[in-house]
Amino acid sequence: MIVLIRKRPLLTIRHFFAIAGILVCLPAAALLNAAVLTVATSHDNNSTFVLGDSVRLDFTVAEATATAKLILDIKDEHDSLVSHIEKNVPSNGNGVVSVYGPNARLGFYRVYSKLSTGETLAKLGSRPAGICTYCIVPDPNKRVLYPEQETFFGLQGGFNTQTNLLPFLGVRWVLGANGTDYMWSHNEPDSSGQFAARREAALKQGRKFPEHSAAVEGCTYKGNIWKVYTLPTLYQVPAWAMPAGDPKEHVSVLNPKADSAWVRYCREAVKAYSENYPDRKYHLYQITWETEYPWGFKATADDLIRIYKLAYPAIHKADPKAVVLGPTGGSMLTDWQIETFKAGLLKYLDGISEHPYCADPDRNNLLDQITALKQAAHRYGGGREFPLYGTEQGVRTDEKQDQEVSQARFVVRSNLMMLGEGWKVNISFYCADYWGEPGFGFYYNINPKIEFQTDKVCPKPIAPAFAAMSYLLEGHTSAGRIEWSGAGVLGYAFERGDDII
């Protein structure tokens, strides 16, 4: 258990899970002329509300009997009853029944919904049958905008202008505006020089290149731009720059004949990024992605280091604000990463980026893994202290409702541990469910027609828990572990000026 204590009351720890209310329906009887029940909320694209908002739940009923009733049990994330509601359906059996859900507390609400004749909500996208959900989070307009070097919380991918989730969750860091916007293979799929030519043409037309994302950099809340900081990844090698017969894993070996093309691309990409973001104090550039042998990189440590050795001086020459990150392992420190450190990779890094996945960070010793990473970097990096960046970290539920509270606990605890241990940024995974990796989303995807970047979602418990955490702790730094809490309890003090949590 992790307990936060602050000198001045703001939000209490109960708000991490003061989460009450989702709509859930029991399985419908398979009748030939059974009634049909569907639901929409008054914020139907994201079902996310600010404290004080009116929460209207509109149930559409078709073909019900005139005497049927709509029966709702509104519960919190622990399935404790918050409210029981019964309402008559329209006398002709067709129409809309509107109900106002509890809205006095921050948190998560699951509403179990059925007709007295047994019909319930059908499964919709990744949302289970019998339920719909909403949550209540802190007002985004009351959040403070901190400079990027004082900002920690991030979220990866799948953003849509219709869902507009970033302000509600308090997310400031994203992994590139469009994910692939600065990747080599995306920008030069056919030959070297394509990126520079396309950018020159765009600039002549008065456009930015790469273009900013409407769902990320165009994100607004009540008319105000929601500021985000992006972290691009540069290296994903195009087919023409691979050796013949390369299996095209996450990161291919670079064909030596393409060395100059890679250097040129680094120079042009970071020039573009620095000119697109002149207000940033520094520019983070993650080079490779999940370079894990053998599933992500089927080559030697020297082959990987050559990619960085070429990129590092080119990037720093083109952008004085550059911070070069890598190797972005698919998990925390592995034997393969230690091999690359021993072989000299750290000479070409300004910071270390990782994908620190750790379901159940307490039992799986996330702190021990962080300590081992710091020790290895210090040992093989000539005694340097490398800043650490998490660029993908999530917990999947496998679409099982009984795992959703655990997902929230593990994501929150992992973020608290990493902030407590001095990581600079942590980007969680993933915005909303998609079909290839079921259950990672902070939100259910309730548009079955859209796999990625869905335009309609509803929350899981992790959404308001994360929103409360980022509201409490953004802009704070670690003052260290709390040592007096006793066996089995881990705590941290976080501070910003006189404010101590």
Word description of this protein:
The chain has 501 residues and is an alpha/beta fold. It has helices at 166-169, 184-187, 194-204, 259-276, 301-318, 335-342, 366-380, 404-420, 462-473; strands at 21-24, 36-41, 48-50, 56-62, 69-75, 81-88, 95-100, 107-115, 131-137, 153-156, 173-174, 220-221, 224-225, 229-230, 283-286, 322-329, 351-354, 388-393, 425-429, 443-445, 457-459, 477-482, 491-496, 499-500. Strands 1, 3, 5, 6, 8 and 9 form a six-stranded mixed beta sheet that branches. It has a six-stranded parallel beta sheet with strand order 10-19-18-17-16-15. The two termini are 16 Å apart. The relative contact order is 0.14.
Summarize the topology:
Elements: E1 21-24, E2 36-41, E3 48-50, E4 56-62, E5 69-75, E6 81-88, E7 95-100, E8 107-115, E9 131-137, E10 153-156, H1 166-169, E11 173-174, H2 184-187, H3 194-204, E12 220-221, E13 224-225, E14 229-230, H4 259-276, E15 283-286, H5 301-318, E16 322-329, H6 335-342, E17 351-354, H7 366-380, E18 388-393, H8 404-420, E19 425-429, E20 443-445, E21 457-459, H9 462-473, E22 477-482, E23 491-496, E24 499-500
Parallel strand pairs: 1-8, 3-9, 10-19, 11-14, 15-16, 16-17, 17-18, 18-19
Antiparallel strand pairs: 1-9, 2-4, 4-7, 5-6, 5-8, 8-9, 12-13, 20-21, 22-23, 23-24
Helix pairs in contact: 4-5, 8-9
